[in-house]
Design a protein that fits this description.
The structure is a single chain. This protein has about 170 residues and is mainly alpha-helical. It has one domain: Winged helix-like DNA-binding domain superfamily/Winged helix DNA-binding domain (Arc Repressor Mutant, subunit A). It contains 6 helices and 4 strands. β1 (about 95) and β2 (about 105-110) form a beta hairpin.
Length: about 170
């Protein structure tokens, strides 16, 4: 599809309209979310999406306290506490007193929690590989290039639509 606003305008291709591409990406994200969810539900232990987020946060920052975990997850302390209660009851998380600050409790993954994360990640990888293998190699290469550009653009500071700069 080619659009022109008048003489001298360059031809516009389907990738030139950010609104249309945003809709396509939103649809693709829905599909990916479904694939991600399916992988988690096929795991031996079926963690919810918030539980997986908490496990990943603990994997990347072992020994954080409840307040730090709540901040990482962008949830309130009561929500984070209930989430940790469930993860601890499932044997995925352990609470240990901080060695030098006796009033602080550190949160860490158990071996079982790490195993669950690894299992879900491997299932997700296998499902994603299957979808990518079904794609035309040129489309797969274009997707890879586009994802790299998307990541780079997301990291680039740009003016906020309201006029202030977002970081």
């Amino acid at each position: 599809m080619t659009h022109s606003n008048g003489p001298g305008d360059r031809a516009r291709g389907p990738g030139d309209c950010p609104e249309a591409v945003a809709r396509e990406i939103a649809d693709a994200a829905e599909s990916l979310t479904s694939l991600w969810s399916r992988a988690a539900q096929e795991a031996t232990l079926r963690p919810s999406a918030p539980q997986l987020r908490a496990l990943r946060a603990l994997q990347s920052a072992p020994g954080v306290n409840l307040t730090a975990l709540a901040e990482r997850l962008n949830v309130g302390l009561p929500t984070a506490s209930r989430l940790c209660d469930r993860l601890e009851a499932a044997g995925l998380l352990e609470r240990v007193l901080h060695p030098s600050r006796r009033r602080e409790v550190q949160l860490s993954l158990t071996t079982h929690g790490l195993h669950v994360l690894t299992d879900v990640a491997e299932r997700r990888r296998r499902l994603l590989v299957a979808v990518l293998e079904a794609m035309d190699p040129a489309a797969r290469a274009a997707l890879s290039l586009g994802m790299q550009a998307f990541g780079a653009a997301q990291e680039t500071p740009r003016p906020h639509p309201g006029g202030t700069n977002r970081g």
